Each structure stands twice: as structure tokens, then as C-alpha cells.
Amino acid sequence: MRTSTGQVLAGVVVLVLATGAASGPSGERSPRDGDSRFGPRVWDVLAQCESGGDWARDSGNGYYGGLQFSVRTWESHGGERFAPLPHLARREDQIAVARAVRDDRGGYGAWPRCSRKLGLPR
């Protein structure tokens, strides 16, 4: 089999572009975002379930933002670098923290009701 490093790299680039796993300038995509049937929309679908898609939601129950973070989870996963509370952060920043939570916990189990309802890996 004749392959060169250039051919392998070209194949990887094509694969990444074809699956949409490349990260754009906005940082909205992550390779793991495609690990569900929703692809990179997973965070919007999850936010729709958690907060009706309201990224600025203060539920009054100790959970905040589109993905309904507790303050403890927000702080322990670096959210304070974006805003003091999740609902004050931009959508993209909430997603960045959500990715850290998902990666730390090995799935979407931090959102138990919605991950179960949506069939996301827990």
C-alpha cells in the first residue's frame, strides 16, 4: 500500500470537513458535538428542552441560562471567566462551559431529564 503523509492528512481534512466537525472562528462546533443525532445543534436542542431555548433565563430555582447551570457547576468548569452567572453569559460561552461539563462527566448526564428525553449519551 502506497500512502504518504500528505495523502493521509488530505483524507483527514476531507473527513473533518465532510462531517462538519471543524471548529469555526466562533468556536460553535466541537468534534464531540457530532456524537449525537443532533450534530452541532445538540446545544440548541438541549437548551430548548432545559429552558425553552432562553439563553438568558433565570429560573428562580438556582439554575441559570439556556442550559440551566447551577452556580457551582458554572464556577467549577470555568464559567466565571465569561460572566459571574450563566444567564449573563453569551450563548457561545455557555456552550463552551457545557462542553467542559460534558467532557468532564463523560456525557450529557448533567442534564438528566433532557438527556434521557432526547436520547443523548449519559
Features:
122 residues, mainly alpha, Lysozyme, two-stranded antiparallel sheet, 43% helix, globular, disordered N terminus
Describe this structure in words.
This protein is mainly alpha-helical. It has one domain: Lysozyme, CATH 1.10.530.10. The chain is built from 5 helices and 2 strands. The chain has helices at residues 5-19, 42-51, 71-76, 91-105, 112-118, and strands at residues 63-64, 69-70. A two-stranded antiparallel ribbon has the order 1-2. The longest helix has 15 residues, at 5-19.
Calculate the terminal CA-CA distance, rounded to whole Å.
40 Å
CATH topology: Lysozyme
Instruction: Summarize the helix and strand pattern as letters.
Output: HHEEHHH
Q: What's the CATH class, please? A: Mainly Alpha
Number of continuous helical runs: 5
| Topology, number of strands | 2
The strand order across the widest sheet is 1-2
Instruction: Give the class from helix and strand content and strand pairing.
Output: mainly alpha
**C-alpha Rg (nearest Å):** 16 Å
Mean pLDDT: 81
The domain tally reads 1
Percent helix range:
40-55%
User: Describe the biggest sheet?
Assistant: 2 strands, antiparallel
Spans with pLDDT under 50 lasting ≥5 residues?
Answer: 1-28
**Globular, elongated, flat, extended or rod-shaped: what is the shape?**
globular
Strand content: under 5%
CATH architecture: Orthogonal Bundle
Helices and strands in order, then pairings?
Blueprint: H1 5-19, H2 42-51, E1 63-64, E2 69-70, H3 71-76, H4 91-105, H5 112-118
Antiparallel strand pairs: 1-2
Short description:
By secondary structure, the chain is mainly α. Helices cover 43% and strands 3% of the residues.
